[in-house]
Amino acid sequence: MAELFQFELVSPERQLLSEQVAEVVVPGAEGEFGVLKNHAPFISTILPGILKVRGEAGGWDEYFVRGGFADVAAGGLTVLAEQAVPVGEISREQLDKAIQDAQEDVADAKDDASRQKAEMTLAQLKDVVEALKKA
Fold this sequence. Notes:
Layout: E1 5-10, E2 15-21, E3 23-28, E4 31-35, E5 42-45, E6 49-54, E7 60-73, E8 76-86, H1 92-108, H2 112-134
Parallel strand pairs: 1-8
Antiparallel strand pairs: 1-2, 3-4, 3-6, 5-7, 6-7, 7-8
């Protein structure tokens, strides 16, 4: 049986999870990374993507997360996300609206740095659409 550790998933609106879990896969800025009990401490920013949580029973739950950071510490893992929504609650309309907003941000960018940031967000959102199609 997998050893469990404390996992917290928090967004500005609410705390989505606070429970003992076996494993979490996080869409980190440097690529996806998995966290198990007794993982070495570190902090990573997170990108828009699918965060996967394996519970005690072995099943996986998936959450769309956008922005924020993951803090792996001795006590477990805390993910503070700018937005976090269970994949089952995401509507195609919400995602389309986010993509439309990102496209407008690209069009409205006043300088290269703003445009690059907006283009990156847009690309990440399109990646999420692809990930959800496969899920």
